[in-house]
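Quiz preparation item.
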């Protein structure tokens, strides 16, 4: 047996006090008067014998009470190894405070249970030990070692957080902090519900650190979540219907019926449908949304589900445009068919510019740029078009006909990963097929019509590629050659026509049933360069178009109904990137405002759905990671278990119990044993 604080054993000299009391108090004589002294000797001998026995028992009880009380302060233990109990410790305690820890364990949230367990762990160590208390917030206080009192205060202040961390990252952080105390023994405690989605530790290994897992179990593990939502058309136009797709998942092990899905628009909640979702399945529902006014439109999708509710709402926002901005770049005069086509589409707001008078700075304002039979492309135009496509724009190319050399076209096609216009062929070709599976012609024609007039050309370039390309053919000639292809490039698209548009070479412009819908859907293609929604803790930056800054010192703010903060910001051309790593705490719609409180845009933030799946690791799965798990008895009082793990079998509690027991024995002897 060893003692954690052997210096307290000197207090055992206090046993001299009851011995002195015994010698000087219990030996005092009391005069007793008898009228008859006949039996005096017999009574005297019997009384002295009983009194001596009682006094010795009282003395023994007092001595043992003092000895066990002194031993309790010295904290004896039975060591489990040669180094048990020796040296100070560095202890890392991780408390999972993600939203899943808000689930109930009986009548108490799991987070409160976790904080109680953490306090018990702290109590199990000595005053010379140091602690790192860490949650998912990674605050400044969590990046250093604390005393016992500081650790208690920090544990008590931990609250639920939208941030989620995987165990591998948590252990790496603990390892980084604990390694600063190279002379201390290192212990790690992970207090969590150990969801399967966040309990990955990868190849983490640290033989110098003992890792213990404290798993907590919620009463109910049923949950339904809205995972995502998106518009099928990337651009919202006033009074133009756009399908909104909603994805909902049942994470439980039971089928659910009558999950109510609704849409909140302008503060008004509108029921959409009732969903029935089989266990473990994901379903999608589509509603037709028609915006009524231009500007930023905030929307909220909502379901009714209990008890886990952090993922029952999905916020999204998108800019609704009154008109679609289209730029036509021509060589001197636009092709008549193209000019009539873009002017005839009511939703278009066309701008016509000559190739040598293009304003590159305005490219970001357009959804579609049409190159109308230019004889060549300058390097500056190619570079700007490449950036425009990368950012989500769409470029439609009609080459000039019967050219032996098209300067710059090959460079643009190569940068966008498209086929190259190779050689001119003066051959009559007819289009035999429209790709109605493509977004461009999908849902354009309600029925397959045999009398639909398809375009033909009297000459075209052969599209060639020396390497694999990401291509979607929109129109195909009878001989199998593509007439128009779509080439996705990052967020945008390059549309390349093998034939010119002028009537001298093609009748595409005169086939309004094909040409007009094609132009309109091309302008709506690509992906919006403003995201519909961001995820708190996962997306580190928000990027959107904003008007030019009035002053170099102008600061943008993100403001919601509950909070407002100034994010880190940097401007790139007409776009701004806002850093939201530390400031975001609540899901919802945030307005982007400037110094004059003018609203420049809106962004939507949602909580991370990684914890929507409440499936937990079982004990075997946790132990497979190399963790130690206390048994049920130890979980009832972790301070005892902690002491036994790092020192051996702790005996001080038994010493306290025995000390109290002997004090009670002394009291009973004095009270009930009369001499």
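Solution:
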């Amino acid at each position: 047996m060893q003692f954690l604080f052997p210096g307290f054993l000197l207090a055992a000299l206090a046993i001299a006090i009851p011995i002195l009391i015994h010698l000087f108090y219990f030996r005092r004589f009391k005069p007793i008067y008898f009228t008859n002294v006949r039996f005096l000797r017999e009574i005297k001998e019997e009384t002295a014998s009983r009194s001596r026995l009682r006094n010795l028992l009282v003395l023994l009880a007092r001595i043992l009470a003092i000895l066990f009380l002194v031993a309790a302060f010295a904290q004896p233990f039975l060591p489990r190894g040669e180094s048990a109990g020796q040296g100070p410790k560095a202890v890392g305690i991780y408390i999972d405070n993600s939203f899943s820890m808000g689930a109930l364990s009986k009548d108490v949230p799991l987070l409160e249970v976790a904080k109680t367990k953490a306090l018990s762990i702290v109590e199990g160590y000595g005053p010379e030990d140091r602690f790192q208390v860490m949650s998912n917030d990674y605050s400044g206080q969590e990046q250093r070692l604390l005393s016992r009192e500081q650790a208690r205060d920090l544990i008590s202040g931990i609250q639920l957080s939208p941030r989620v961390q995987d165990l591998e990252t948590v252990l790496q952080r603990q390892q980084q902090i604990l390694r600063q105390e190279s002379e201390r023994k290192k212990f790690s405690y992970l207090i969590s519900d150990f969801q399967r989605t966040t309990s990955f530790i990868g190849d983490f290994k640290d033989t110098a650190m003992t890792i213990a897992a404290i798993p907590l179990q919620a009463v109910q593990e049923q949950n339904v979540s809205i995972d995502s939502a998106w518009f099928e058309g990337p651009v919202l136009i006033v009074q133009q219907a756009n399908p909104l797709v909603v994805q909902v998942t049942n994470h439980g092990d039971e089928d659910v019926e009558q999950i109510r899905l609704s849409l909140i628009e302008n503060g008004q909640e509108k029921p959409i449908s009732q969903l029935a979702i089989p266990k473990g399945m994901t379903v999608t529902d589509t509603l037709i949304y028609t915006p009524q006014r231009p500007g930023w439109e905030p929307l909220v999708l909502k379901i009714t589900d209990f008890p886990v509710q952090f993922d029952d709402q999905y916020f999204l926002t998108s800019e609704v445009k009154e008109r679609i901005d289209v730029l036509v770049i021509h060589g001197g005069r636009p092709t008549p068919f193209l000019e009539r086509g873009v002017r005839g589409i009511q939703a278009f707001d066309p701008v016509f510019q000559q190739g040598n008078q293009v304003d590159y700075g305005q490219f970001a304002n357009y959804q579609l740029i049409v190159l109308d039979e230019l004889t060549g492309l300058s390097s500056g135009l190619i570079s700007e078009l490449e950036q425009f496509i990368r950012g989500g724009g769409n470029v439609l190319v009609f080459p000039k006909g019967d050219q032996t050399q098209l300067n710059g076209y090959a460079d643009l096609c190569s940068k966008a990963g498209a086929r190259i216009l190779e050689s001119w062929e003066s051959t009559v070709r007819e289009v035999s097929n429209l790709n109605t599976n493509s977004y461009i012609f999908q849902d354009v024609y309600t029925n397959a019509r045999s009398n639909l007039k398809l375009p033909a050309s009297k000459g075209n370039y052969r599209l060639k590629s020396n390497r694999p390309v990401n291509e979607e053919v929109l129109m195909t000639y009878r001989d199998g050659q593509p007439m128009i292809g779509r080439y996705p490039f990052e967020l945008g698209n390059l549309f390349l026509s093998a034939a010119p548009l002028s009537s001298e070479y093609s009748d595409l412009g005169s086939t309004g049933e094909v040409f007009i819908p094609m132009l309109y859907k091309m302008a709506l293609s690509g992906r919006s360069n403003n995201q519909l929604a961001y995820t708190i803790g996962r997306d580190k930056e928000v990027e959107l178009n904003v008007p030019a800054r009035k002053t170099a010192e102008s600061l943008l703010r993100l403001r919601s109904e509950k909070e407002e903060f100034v994010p880190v910001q940097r401007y790139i051309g007409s776009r701004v990137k806002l850093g939201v790593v530390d400031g975001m705490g609540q899901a919802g719609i945030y307005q982007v405002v400037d110094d004059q409180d003018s609203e420049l845009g809106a962004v939507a933030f949602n909580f991370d759905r990684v914890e929507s799946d409440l499936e937990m690791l079982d004990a075997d799965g946790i132990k497979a990671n190399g963790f130690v798990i206390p048994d049920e008895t130890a979980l009832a009082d972790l301070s005892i278990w902690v002491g036994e793990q790092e020192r051996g079998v702790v005996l001080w509690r038994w010493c306290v119990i025995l000390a109290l027991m002997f004090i009670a024995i002394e009291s009973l002897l004095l009270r009930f044993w009369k001499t």
